[in-house]
Amino acid sequence: MTRWVWCLALAGCVDAANEIRFLDDTWDHTLKLSTGLDGLSFPYAPTSEVRLELVRLGGNDEGEFDGWTFTTDDPSVLEIVSQDHAGGATLRAAGDGTATIQAFDPDGRMRRETRLSVATPDELELAPGMTPGHVVPAGEVFATLPDDHVRAVLMMSARGYPVYGVPEGLRGEGVDLQLEINALFPYHPGLLFRSEEGGAIVLDQQGEEIARWPVEVRAPGELVSVTLDNLEERAGAEGEPVRISVLAEADDGTMVYGVPCDFSLDGEPEDRADGFYYVKDSNQPMMLRASNCAGKAFRDEIEVHAAVGGPLAVP
Length: 315
What we know:
With 315 residues, the chain is mostly beta strands. It has one helix at 231-235, and strands at residues 7-8, 12-13, 20-24, 49-56, 69-72, 78-83, 88-93, 97-104, 110-118, 123-128, 136-137, 142-144, 150-158, 161-163, 170-173, 176-180, 190-194, 199-205, 208-217, 223-229, 241-250, 255-257, 261-265, 268-273, 275-291, 299-306. The chain folds into three domains: 7-118, Sandwich (Immunoglobulin-like), CATH 2.60.40.1080; 123-217, Immunoglobulin-like; 221-306, Immunoglobulin-like (Sandwich), CATH 2.60.40. It is globular, with a radius of gyration of 23 Å. The two termini are 42 Å apart.
């Protein structure tokens, strides 16, 4: 296939190869790739694996990247686990530092390169639900109801900057823990867990424990209040998914997460859940009510601004 190269008198000539970009699977795909920038979210957490692909801004032709290969200049930072020789490769974050990844066409010409980094997180938090709103820092208690399935998002940062990827070493002690794809924010690790008698969620990195969340189980009778928190809507951007969190408090002041309630939006019944998801639309004020929380007579209501069409479906 022939690609035309247009020359502008003021801007000069731009090689079509400059349209090629790197894209990783931690990238926020709701964002649009712009000229000159790759679709990459890093630094990556050590031990995480990242899928790296080549894309063309105008769209790929079938087989366009057949025979292309990747190299790394420092496998002690980022090693190439496998590559499909069709514009894709799997990288493993091996250790803190920075490495250069280069892409070569079948003729051996280097066509794109990027500098990627790996950083051990120094701050870790669990956000109940599936959006990064209310958070529980490592070391603090994450309390739930007995045998209740709870979703959470793992938030990591190093020196104040977000860290991406799904690190190895996440495990449960007395907790049935599963990793899952986060339907709303796939670039943050999603957790689904339950516990009958309590335990802990632990993250080990390279043989050392770097984070622990004690998990306590509270009976519904210990709850003294349930409120709806719209922090995410107040901070969220127009058209973005947000979550109204159910914040329950036990009689000793501990916050309890994963408490299910019956929801209604402007009087119309919605699904029973431990949070309510929707797309923010400031032109659509509605009343959201939660009731019968944890089988108790708790109820609360707040005004939300949800897009026409109702709540956002989340599996």
